[in-house]
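Thread title: Can someone regenerate the structure for this chain?

I was given the following input by a collaborator and told the matching structure tokens would be attached. They weren't. Posting the sequence so someone can regenerate them.
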Amino acid sequence: MHRIPSSKGELRSLVASVVGELPHDVDEHENLIEYGIDSLGMMRIIGSWHAQGLAVKFCELSERPTLAQWWELVGGRAVSGPVEVPWPQVDPSAPFALDPVQRAYWAGRADGQVLGGVGCHVYLEVDGSGVDAESLRRAVLAVVRRHPMLRARFLADGTQQVLPEPAWTGLTHHDLRALDEDGVRRELDRVRSELSHRRLAVERGEVFDVRLSSLPGGRTRLHVELDSLVADVLSLGVFLHDLAACYAGGAESLPPLTYTFPQYRADLERSRGPVRERDREYWMSRIADLPPAPRLPLACDPAQIGKPVFRRLAHWVDPDRYRRLVALARRHRVTPAMVLATAFAEVLGRWSGQTRVLLDLPVFDRVALHDDVPRVIGAFTNHVLLDVDLSGESFADRVRAVQRRFQADASHGACSAAEVLREVLGHDGPAAPVLFTGDMGGGELLGDRFRESFGELGHAISQTPGAWLDHRLVELDGGLYLTWDHVAGLFETGVVEGMFEVYRDLLEWLLGGDWSVAPPVGLPQSQRVVRAVVAETAGLESGRLLHEGFYEWAEAEPDRVAVVSGDGAELSFGALADRSLRIAGALAGRGVRPGDAVVVAVPGGPDLVAAALGVLAAGGVYVPVAVDAPPDHRRRAVEIASAAFAVSESGCGPWPANVRVVPATACGHAPLPRPVGVRATDPAYVLLTGPEGRPGGVEVSHRSVVNTLEDVTERFGVGAGDRVLAVSPVGSDLAVFDLFGLLGSGGAVVLPDDGGRADPGRWAELCERHGVTVWNSTPERFAGYLSAARGSGDRLRLALVSGGRVGSDLPARFRARCPQGRFVALGGAAGAAIWSSAFEVDGVPDGRPVPWGFALRNQRYRVVDPAGRDCPDRVPGELWIGGLGVAEGYRGDPVRSSAAFVWWEGRRWYRTGDLGRFRHDGALEPLDVEELSGNARRR
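Best answer:
Regenerated them for you:
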């Protein structure tokens, strides 16, 4: 126990003993953190002083961390009077209550709990040679007699009781010396499988186990498991230390213990009674402002896991690098534990898209109520809910903010965060599902004597009911052993491995020493490679115009059918070209020049097709508007496009006075001899998009849209033998493919009459009657068609579905009807040319949405977090589209264009505002807000 110092000299000696320095080497004005005092050391000092009646807070010492400032706080501070220590003795055999943390662990053991049904324990294997089984058995029994909590049982009423005799009846000795190597391996795997995730029968007093495997050649393996109901991490170190001492020299080699964990619990309750309500109110006020648990990419709902199985990832920081990390932390006046907690949170924030991350920190809570407390085995654990704010400009700023937050929260440990959460939320389990167990400051896990007797640490694993991921730090071999224990099958493929790789990279960066900038939390190497591969979409450009292919077919095969009306009337390429060039002549005669916008408001028949082609043939930019659109919408289209011309029919007005209207039936006008020449980089069309009250006009060049059309038609073999049913609205970009994709490839367009545009039954009839081979629509329209198409005359060979979430049922339904058909999901956005990605469905797992797939030729994608960084796989972010498909901008709206069309790393990108994420294979998946919020609620 640390006495309350009566002079600055006594305080100097106390600090020197804690940090391992000579008293005269401790400068009273230097930051004590730079000397090596950490949170654990400060908490031990404070706990001891509290027990003696000195009311000083953890945050007071940590925020003024010099010897001189401590003396200002402590010297002359009123003491409420020495607390009587020890308090009245407890009955060592009487049941006593579980503390809040034990209660959470105990509740999580029960079957039916989410990620429960397992014991909270640690299992480790030590590989050595020459261990004697009988000497080991005697040593274990000596340790059990020394530590009452190793004889504890846990009763159904939520209490614990120390038994006079241990439940551990003897050493299980696996003698494998006669087996070959394969047999040895199988048996060791069996033992590991049995012990590493065993739920000990704590109700019968099974709280630990020690076994020995004897192997060929004199090798041995020691198996140790210890339940966290009776032992914190420091207690594991005590157990291993005492086991080695008793093995080498018997129980008499250890000094006797005169203090027990049950007595400690009773004394602690009395000492903390006056401040318990204050700390409870503190945590009650903090709960509402805490961030949510990290929204990490999960493969399933945690409730679907059943009994969890934990897996471990590990990394060892060698002694030289560990010493450098400690020195850098001291230089920045922070503790190494807070440095690593912040680095861990940086990675979690990257994979959850959060700038505030909630961690559950199990902390050492061994208040120095007695000199024996450091040598007692017991559950001396408390929990702090740490809100890690990652908004600081530099890593140093962030870790200092985290340390201040931790210091303030740790000052209110008389009431556990686990206790408050159980009260407020009815939550029994970890206070948060991601844990940071910073077991630093407790010394080496395996001491020299233990190594001499039993060997070196091999495999190890821990598990905590309800936990998703537990990052543990253990001092080992002079360095630092970093482990991530996580629930197998809970996370999406590669998520934990990718995070761990980036965490190791971040540690390397930290060792470089420049903490004055934001930390570079990048992507795992494997993801960078995949992204680079899928981004290689470069291909040749034809340099053609949107309408050029149609006119070439019209000249080469004028009698080929181009358009089929709903009533069955056919229009050839030649006749359609003549009508369109007459409209072009009429527009040119009215003054249309290359680049002029022309609004097209024509019913969806052959006249609409001729009008669109005619505008392009005149060198104009066509702006489609539905004939039944409100007058205000038509007016907005004219304003947005700065259009002074329109192609329409009588009855489709009125039009603004400055707009000159050319009838869609301008068949009597002299045709242009050929289309007016324009550049491929000139605009081809403007589509109105956005909210009805404030639409924008996305301007798309010939080059952009032709790049998309040529890729899709070539990729999926769309050609002269194909026909498409044009069911998409005239103002949508899907209609661009119907008209120019098919006509430019020599195919035909089947146009439903006005009455059949929204009738799936009519669609099915037209498809069968006119031999439609290509479908192009939203998922909803295709689902309606499949429901209506009941005949056997379906000739569909290709279904192109886009413009919404594509459920996994659609490909199956299509294949059931057209077994040889190709089903393609496509992705894109208004600010790009029709589509930017495609995914041909071969097999999609049930319940999974069909991805948008991979970028098309000369196009690419990014998924971006709020900081502008590429999101890791499976992490939602904003979709950005780059490459040739990107539109020119919002016509006539430079402010809106500059916000949506941005430059990044020398490329121009369109910020879609939509949500998406990458799969591990580089395929893109769209997300909607409801899906994302649903996942957040689930998690």
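Residues 101 and 663 are 80 Å apart (CA to CA).
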